Request: fold
Amino acid sequence: MKKTKNIIIAVTGSISAYKACELVRLLCKRGNKVNVLMSEAATHFVTPLTFQTLSKNPVVINMFENPVAWDPQHVALAQGAHMVAVVPATANVIAKLAQGICDDIITCVIAATRAKVIVCPAMNENMYTHPATQDNIARLKRFGYRIIEPVKGELACGKVGIGHLADLDKIISEIEKALK
Ligand SMILES: Cc1cc2nc3c(=O)[nH]c(=O)nc-3n(C[C@H](O)[C@H](O)[C@H](O)COP(=O)(O)O)c2cc1C
Reply:
């Protein structure tokens, strides 16, 4: 019998956050247990209620709010995860992860986990090709994180360029590879 895998999907404040809804739905349909974490910025794009309903699990945004257990939530989530994927990953969260900044639930869970981490950048082409972002991505690769590079496509600004979130099929197949 297939063992249920615990997957954490961390959603950050990119216009492509809506695609994470379908990702969560598909991962749950495949028999995985999915916990969604959202940055405050992500809640401007998609509601936590959408993720809560799709994943059938509470969504964590603020790690200081309503503790339901005695143990710190970020540590419990980090230790229980088989893998963590940041989908979509903003330039901001990539910079914070590259520097070890832990100022929200997403960055704390990723620092505290020893599970595999996948990062799926999505942003404007100039933000993506900026040397700071490229240096930060290179640093994440050195940490052993798997980066699923964005593709060329229509961006939020209306221009066509590199920075479009990778296809969900590709992201799902990388998540399944990481779970093996
Ligand atoms: C309409 C809109 C779309 C945005 N899309 C992106 C995006 O695709 N990628 C990105 O890196 N930042 C994007 N941003 C900027 C981020 O939301 C901003 O940097 C935010 O501080 C990210 O916070 P977080 O990393 O904690 O989610 C967008 C902002 C707005 C207003």
Remarks:
- The pocket of flavin mononucleotide is lined by residues 12-16, 39, 41-42, 90-93, 122-123, 127, 156 (CB under 6 Å).
- The chain has one domain: 6-179.
- The mean pLDDT is 94.
- Residues 6-179 form a domain with the Rossmann fold fold (CATH 3.40.50.1950).
